[in-house]
Amino acid sequence: MTRPLHLSAALDSPGRLDAGHYAALARIAERATLDFVTLDDSFAAAPQRPDALATLARIAPLTERIGLVPTVTTTHTEPFHTSIALNTLDWVSEGRAGWLVGVSTTEAEARAFGRRPVAPADELWAEAADAAEVAARLWDSWEDDAEIRDTATGRFVDRDKLHYVDFEGRYFSVRGPSITPRPPQGRPVVAVPVAAADLAPDASAAGRARVATAIRHADVVLLDAPDRAARLTAATELRLRSGEHLRILARLDAALPDRAAEERLLAELTAAGTGVDGFHLVPAEPERDLAALAERTAPALRAAGLLRADYPGRTLREHLGLVRPASRYAAAPAAGATDSRSLAEVTR
After folding, report:
1. What span, in angstroms and rounded, lies between the C-alpha atoms of 76 and 159?
2. Residue 119: exposed, middle, or buried by beta-carbon count in 10 A (0-12, 13-18, 19+)?
3. DSSP-based three-state secondary structure for 155
4. How many CA atoms lie within 13 A of 131 on its CB side?
């Protein structure tokens, strides 16, 4: 029996800054039982777009099951702050957060910060890989049962279950531990965009660096490929390099102005031999296209046994069939006795 598709969708709506607009779109996508939605972000001044992470944190209480995956760029941003912000999104959404890793490559963005000059894209993706490694270590730095919250004794945390990450890399030096408890999912789902051309023998340095980041750190790859044959070739190569744990979703334009377009999309979604786990849909007009998806395309896929009728659990990892990772520090031997010092004393 064919496995149900994993589907996601982009909510990007140039010029729309109100959170209510994105909340309405996310609820439509949730009605279609999509795994997650993404929202793009950039440090560029134009086109205007909302802060992706803040917007999805705002709409988290207005949705129930759908995963929320903002683009968060690693350029001009400290990984400690990125990890805390994504951890917060995972808590407010009760385990539905993800992170679409991005970089900033333009001179204008570098000037806006004035902190560093623009760098080559391959260097920025190598830096993004380090940022993802730091974030994962920080999410792991609190063991799952590190919180005590014992009012009678005044003990907030078990100090032996907080760990220094002691990361030393080319771009960052981070001691840790985090200042927030471990996320509900253990680690938010990490997604990396990859193009089929990035896997070609003559791929650019930036493309090779993007693929290396995905292989080391991604739970999900959003794959941009020109056709089915390219999807199959790229997906096969990614699995050979990374293993079967990776979920590969092919980017697919989803302009649905009429029934003929809907039928073309249903044919693309049901085509065999693409090698991917599902599709990341990019609407042309999100309100129109997501409504068509929820009202007609999704029911047709369910009738064909290609889309689940409901969510299998509460977290994004459960939607995607991904295991909840254990903290890499959980098996470390105790270094000292549990004490009742404040969180500030423990983490400074």
Report:
1. 32
2. middle
3. strand
4. 27
Strands 173-174 and 167-168: antiparallel
Instruction: Return phi, psi of residue 12, to 5°.
Output: -55, 130
The residues, ordered by sequence, that sit 6+ positions from 297 with a Cβ below 8 Å of its Cβ are 32, 256, 262, 265, 266, 269
Rounded Cα gap, residues 291 and 284, in angstroms: 12
Q: Which residues are annotated as a binding site for FMN?
A: 41, 71
DSSP summary character for residue 335: -
2-49 confidence digits (pLDDT tens): 678 999 999 999 889 999 999 999 999 999 999 999 999 988 767 788
Helix 79-92 to helix 52-59 angle (10° resolution) is 20
Those residues of the chain that have pLDDT short of 70 are 1-2, 45, 332-348
Task: Please tell me the predicted confidence (pLDDT) of residue 273.
Answer: 81
Instruction: Using a cut of 0.90, tell me whether the model's pTM lies above it.
Output: yes
Amino acid residing at 91: W
* Contact between 249 and 234 (Cβ < 8 Å): no
Q: What secondary structure does DSSP assign to 25-60, as a single string?
A: HHHHHHHTT-SEEEE---SSSSS----HHHHHHHHG
- Extract the tokens encoding 217: 């750190």
Known binding-site residue numbers: 41, 71
Residue with tokens 């945390």: 157
DSSP string covering 68-120? EEEEEE-TTS-HHHHHHHHHHHHHHTTS-BEEEEE----HHHHHHH-SS----
